[in-house]
Design goal:
Mean pLDDT: 92
Pfam family, one: NosD
Oligomer: single chain
Shape: elongated
Helix content: under 10%
Organism: marine sediment metagenome
Transmembrane segments: 580-598
Keywords: Membrane, Repeat, Transmembrane, Transmembrane helix, Ubl conjugation pathway
Number of helices: 3
Radius of gyration: 50 Å
Domain Periplasmic copper-binding protein NosD beta helix: 3-185, 242-353
Bound molecules: calcium ion
Length: 606
């Protein structure tokens, strides 16, 4: 226990059964059968800074060896770099250089679970990282697995729940036969392959073969292969948010994503599939695939190809097809494939129809190439706003009368893409934009004269469609012209003479009324007699040489108002101290009558 084997040049270190807590540091270990062997039940050993070269197996884990750390070693030119037999768990293998091994860089044979393989540089081996049978829940992270011979990362035979994340897996094609960057074969299920860069592995970028089901392939960049992502005889995989580009390296056929040979229920979603030869290729019993929300662009041969009659019940919807050789070819049985779902289809850049009713759906179907005669009946299509704004004028109402105060307006304007609203009251000479209901601009209203005013309401939308509705209202800014012809100002009246006569000129007359000596208001509509009680009170209260006020009013329905003041002098005797009172009164009375006649004539002449 707790041996430190340091700075030796030795041929083989063997950590025996149940050997724990050993440190193997900075040794040169070369030319052995096994470089470092951790035998059964070797726990918590640390192997670091060693140079392990030219051995049949660089580091070899026998069985049940857990929690060992292998880091910062150089494992080159061995048979295998690191070899796990079986039941080794929770080991951490990181920051090692593992290169030029004639067999696999890291090899896990049987039942090795929960190991952590990270930040290693693994190149020039046969297979970079190889999980053979029943190896579950391992994490393969941040490794650079490039320039290996057959595959970069390879899982086979029922390896479940492994995470392959953030690795660089490039140019693994030294032994040129069905190469793949990441290859899941034979019932490898529920693995996550995420955020990897997978470039130039000659044949396939990411390959699922023979019952490798329910894997999640997301956010990977996969480029420069014959087939970017190859789903073959495997079901229910979710391929989501990957960038699949430039898969064109084969002189024969290339595709971004290929789904073929008895597959069911794979989901291809939200991927960018750009500049491949064929974007997506379904053939040979590729069934019930859900292909949705992908951006499928610049694929030189075609966007998507459903090649034969045995491809059943595939759904293609909400994808964007732009600038492909052909956008889609459906050669399955008529009606077998759906090109829309739930009332929404795909976007086709070569769609020839319009969307006149602005529901975002093309008004005629899109015809899909191929023997199935399929159509997308619900193409995604927006050709701009074709529907004019709808304007309803609630207030003012037609012929409504307004005075000097500019009227309020209340309009309802509806449009999906409303841009601007404005009104004019002078036929467009001046326009006033508004964003909510309010009042007509007062300075503009002030320029109007009596009569009618036409208010035009306008609205446009972002598509340039302009609507207008107008309404004509009346305007009255002139007060009534009220002339009191009897009594005249300063008339001398007997107490019994309460008569009054008037002339009114007003087209929108509302009410006329008067008050006597500041008393209460009395309405009137025709000539007649002033209110007796008020008159008598005022008359009695006024001295023989005084006068009292009768104030007449008229207003119109527009709110204009006028008042006319008439002073009335009571016909009373002067106090008895004044001589000749009676005669004097007669004389004044006569002359007053004469004066009225003259004034009336003058009025008539006007
Ligand atoms: Ca439209
Ligand atoms: Ca439509
Ligand atoms: Ca519109
Ligand atoms: Ca008026």
């Amino acid at each position: 226990y707790n041996n430190i084997v340091d700075n030796n040049v030795v041929n083989g270190i063997r950590i025996m059964d149940h050997a724990s807590g050993n440190w193997v540091i900075s040794n040169k270990i070369r030319g052995n059968n096994y470089g470092v062997v951790i035998f059964d039940h070797g726990l918590n050993n640390t192997i670091k800074f060693n140079s392990i070269t030219g051995n049949t197996r660089g580091i070899y884990f026998q069985e049940y060896s857990d929690n060992n750390v292998i880091k910062f070693n150089n494992m080159s030119d061995n048979g295998y770099g690191i070899y796990f037999m079986d039941y080794n768990a929770d080991n951490k293998i990181h920051h090692n250089l593992i290169s030029g091994n004639s067999n696999d860089g890291i090899y896990l044979w049987l039942y090795n679970d929960l190991n952590y393989i990270a930040d290693n540089n693994i190149s020039g081996n046969y297979i970079g990282i190889h999980l053979n049978e029943y190896n579950d829940n391992n994490t393969i992270q941040n490794n650079n697995v490039s320039y290996n011979g057959q595959y970069g990362i390879h899982l086979e035979y029922s390896c479940f729940n492994n995470t392959i994340e953030n690795n660089i897996v490039n140019y693994n094609f030294g032994v040129s036969f069905n190469n793949a960057g990441i290859f899941l074969w034979n019932y490898c299920d529920f693995n996550t392959v995420t955020h990897n860069t997978v470039i130039g592995n000659l044949y396939f970028g990411i390959w699922m073969l023979s019952g490798s089901d329910n894997n999640l392939i997301n956010n990977n960049t996969v480029s420069d292969h014959s087939t970017g992502i190859n789903i073959q005889s495997s079901d229910s995989n979710t391929v989501i948010s990957n960038t699949v580009i430039n898969n064109t390296v084969s002189p024969i056929t290339n595709e971004g994503i290929k789904i073929h040979v008895d597959t069911l229920g794979n989901i291809i979603k939200n991927n960018t599939i750009d500049n491949n030869e064929m974007g997506i290729h379904l053939v040979n019993n590729a069934d019930t695939t859900d292909i949705t929300e992908n951006l499928i662009i610049n694929n030189t041969a075609g966007g998507i190809f459903i090649e034969d009659l045995n491809c059943d019940n595939n759904e293609v919807w909400l994808n964007y097809f732009i600038n492909n050789g052909f956008n889609a070819n459906d050669s399955s049985d008529p009606g077998d494939s759906s090109w829309y779902k739930g009332g929404i289809g795909n976007y086709w850049d070569d769609y020839g129809g319009t969307d006149a009713n602005d529901d975002g759906i093309g008004d005629i179907p899109y015809n899909i190439d191929g023997s199935a005669g399929s159509q997308d009946n619900y193409t995604i299509w927006d050709d701009g706003d074709d529907i004019f704004p709808n304007i309803t004028i609630i207030n003012p109402i037609p012929n409504q009368l307004f005075g000097a105060q500019a009227p309020d307006f209340n309009v309802e304007i509806r449009d999906k893409n409303l841009h601007k609203m404005w009104y004019t009251i002078d036929n467009g000479l001046n326009n006033y934009t508004f964003i909510s209901n309010g009042s007509i601009y007062q300075p503009a209203w002030d320029l109007e004269s009596n009569g009618t005013v036409t208010i035009g309401f306008y609205a446009n939308d972002t598509g340039g469609n302009i609507s207008f509705k107008e309404i004509t209202v009346r305007i009255d800014i002139l007060a009534p012209i009220l002339t009191i012809v009897n009594p005249l100002n300063n008339d001398i009246r007997a107490k019994t003479n309460r008569t009054f006569d008037f002339i009114i000129v007003e087209e929108n007359l509302d009410t006329m009324w008067y008050s006597i000596a500041g008393g209460q208001n009395h309405k009137f509509t025709v000539n007649g007699s002033l209110n007796q009680a008020d008159w008598d009170t005022a008359w009695d209260a006024t001295t023989w040489d005084g006068s009292f006020l009768v104030r007449f009013y008229a207003n119109d329905t527009a709110g204009n108002i006028i008042s006319v003041d008439i002073l009335v002098r009571p016909n009373k005797q002067a106090p008895s101290s004044i001589p000749f009172g009676y005669n004097y009164f007669i004389i004044i009375g006569i002359s007053t009558i004469a004066l009225i006649v003259i004034k009336k004539r003058k009025l008539n002449q006007k």
